[in-house]
Design brief:
Organism: Gambusia affinis
Distance between the termini: 18 Å
Oligomer: single chain
InterPro entries: Tetraspanin/Peripherin, Tetraspanin_animals, Tetraspanin_CS, Tetraspanin_EC2_sf
Order of helices and strands: HHHHHHHHHH
Keywords: Glycoprotein, Lysosome, Membrane, Transmembrane, Transmembrane helix
Number of strands: 0
Protein name: Tetraspanin
Strand content: under 5%
Subunit structure: Interacts with SLC19A2. Interacts with NTRK1/TRKA.
Number of helices: 10
Length: about 250
C-alpha cells in the first residue's frame, strides 16, 4: 500500500533525524566543555601566546579560541536540540528554525573557505610576524623567565620539536649563555651536550615546521572531513524540509 510505504519512509527519516541530531547534541556538549576548559586552564598553550612580547595584534584573536569553542558548542547544542525535538514532536516551528540555522552555518562555512583561499598571503604574512615575535621571546626570556621557559618546554615536549623555526632560535638566549653556548636537550633528543655541531646534524624540527608538516600531510583528510560535513548539512536540510512539508 503506497500510504504505508510513505509512512514507513517518514518513520525512517524521523528516526534518522533524531539519531543524527542526538550525536550533534552530544558533540556540542563535548566542544562546549573543551571551550570552558581552555578558558579556565591558565597553563594552556593559548595563554602562552599572551606572554610573548611584540606579538602582532592580529594573533590576539587566537586567545579568544576558548570563546569560539564555547560559541560552537552552544550552536551545536541548539541545533541538536531543535532537530531532535522538532522530529520527535513533529513541530513545524522547530524544524523550520533548524533548517534556517543549518543553512546559515553552511553559508558561513562556504564564505570562510573562500576567504581562506583569497587571503592566504595575508595568513602567511601573519605567521611570519608571529615567528619573529616568538624568536624574540625565546632570545629574551628562555632560561630566565620561569613561565616562558616552562611553557616553551611543555610545547616542545608535546610536539617533539625545537624552537619556533629551529634550534638557532635559542642562540643568544639566557639559557644558551648560562649553559656554555649549548641548546636545550629537547633540540638534540639522543645526544648530550647539545652544541651547534650536534644540533646541526640531530636537531628536531621547529614547532611551526612540525605543525605545518602535520597539516600538509593531512590536507586530504581535512578536505574530506570538510566535504563530509557539508554533505551532512545538505542532507539534514533536505530531511528537515521533507518532515516540515509532511
Amino acid at each position: 500500500e503506497p500510504s504505508a510505504g510513505r509512512m514507513g519512509c517518514f518513520g525512517f527519516l524521523k528516526a534518522m533525524m533524531i539519531a543524527f541530531n542526538g550525536i550533534i547534541f552530544l558533540a556540542g556538549i563535548t566542544i562546549l566543555g573543551v571551550g570552558i576548559w581552555v578558558k579556565v586552564d591558565t597553563g594552556s598553550i593559548f595563554n602562552f601566546l599572551g606572554k610573548i612580547n611584540d606579538v602582532p595584534p592580529e594573533i590576539n584573536q587566537v586567545l579568544n579560541v576558548g570563546y569560539l569553542l564555547i560559541a560552537i558548542g552552544v550552536l551545536l547544542v541548539v541545533i541538536g536540540f531543535l532537530g531532535c525535538c522538532g522530529a520527535m514532536r513533529e513541530s513545524k516551528c522547530m524544524l523550520l528554525l533548524f533548517f534556517m540555522i543549518v543553512l546559515l552555518v553552511f553559508i558561513a562555512e562556504v564564505a570562510g573557505a573562500v576567504v581562506i583561499l583569497v587571503f592566504r598571503p595575508v595568513a602567511d604574512a601573519l605567521f611570519e610576524k608571529v615567528g619573529t615575535a616568538a624568536v624574540k621571546n625565546i632570545q629574551k626570556d628562555y632560561g630566565s623567565n620561569a613561565d616562558v621557559t616552562g611553557l616553551w618546554n611543555t610545547t616542545m615536549d608535546a610536539l617533539k620539536c625545537c624552537g619556533f623555526y629551529n634550534y638557532t632560535d635559542f642562540t643568544g638566549s639566557p639559557y644558551y649563555t648560562k649553559h656554555n653556548n649549548t641548546y636545550p636537550p629537547r633540540c638534540c633528543p639522543t645526544n648530550s651536550p647539545c652544541n651547534s655541531t650536534v644540533a646541526d646534524a640531530k636537531s628536531a624540527d621547529g614547532c611551526f615546521t612540525k605543525i605545518k608538516k602535520l597539516i600538509d600531510n593531512n590536507t586530504v583528510v581535512i578536505v574530506g572531513v570538510a566535504l563530509g560535513i557539508a554533505a551532512l548539512e545538505i542532507c539534514a536540510m533536505i530531511v528537515s524540509m521533507m518532515l516540515y512539508c509532511r
